[in-house]
Write a structure and sequence with these properties.
Blueprint: H1 2-15, H2 22-31, H3 39-61, H4 69-92, H5 101-132, H6 140-172, H7 176-198
Helix pairs in contact: 1-6, 2-4, 2-6, 3-5, 3-6, 4-5, 4-7
């Protein structure tokens, strides 16, 4: 049990490490289009991301799936940029309107994209995890602990994004949709150097 909580803490620290902010940036992009009124959509996307994330992490950790680290490092900023672009489409279509017919289609597209992105990010964590587990015979308990730490930290980030979004919109009277658009554009701009730096030559 001590090892389990040790790896849980490692998972927490790995996501919340601001020196490796790519995962935080992705979670901001994932959460920013939504308000507390649309919490069901956030829960749905977070659940899909968690399942895909843990699935690819487990497959890679047990040697079933192996993707070259160069491609994983490049695809992670790709997923961040694509999520931000989807946000712009999502907001434009009025996806936060429960009565909009396009909302269902767009949340479905968002969900499929999140599923794929979760697989990629799981592979990204697996490289770090396999280094930690190089001398470990039993991978299951550390794997579950590490995954739990990652998911707890993801919940913290997502809730924080929604709280900050609410506070800014309330204090400035800035429409949430406009705030989400501005943040999404900033995220796209922030990923450009990451894409250039990780582009596989």
């Amino acid at each position: 049990m001590q090892d389990f909580w040790f790896y849980t803490q490692l998972g927490l620290n790995h996501v919340l490490d601001f020196n490796a902010y790519d995962h935080i940036l992705f979670l901001i992009a994932l959460a920013v289009p939504f308000t507390f009124k649309s919490w069901k959509n956030v829960v749905l996307l977070a659940t899909v991301f968690t399942i895909a994330h843990c699935f690819s992490l487990a497959l890679s950790s047990y040697g079933v799936l192996d993707v070259h680290v160069v491609w994983v490092e490049f695809l992670i900023p790709v997923t961040i940029a694509m999520t931000a672009v989807l946000n712009l489409l999502f907001i434009k279509a009025g996806a936060n309107d429960a009565n909009s017919k396009s909302a269902g289609k767009n949340i479905g597209l968002h969900m499929l994209a999140t599923l794929f992105f979760g697989l990629i990010h799981g592979l990204g964590f697996s490289n770090y995890f396999k280094i930690l587990m190089a001398d470990e015979a039993d991978k299951l308990s550390p794997l579950l602990g590490f995954a739990l730490g990652i998911e707890i930290s993801q919940v913290i980030v997502v809730i924080s994004v929604m709280v900050v979004s609410f506070v800014i919109s309330y204090l400035t009277s800035l429409r949430h949709s406009l705030f989400a658009i501005l943040v999404s554009i900033l995220i796209i701009l922030a990923t450009i150097p990451m894409l250039i730096a990780t582009f596989p030559l």
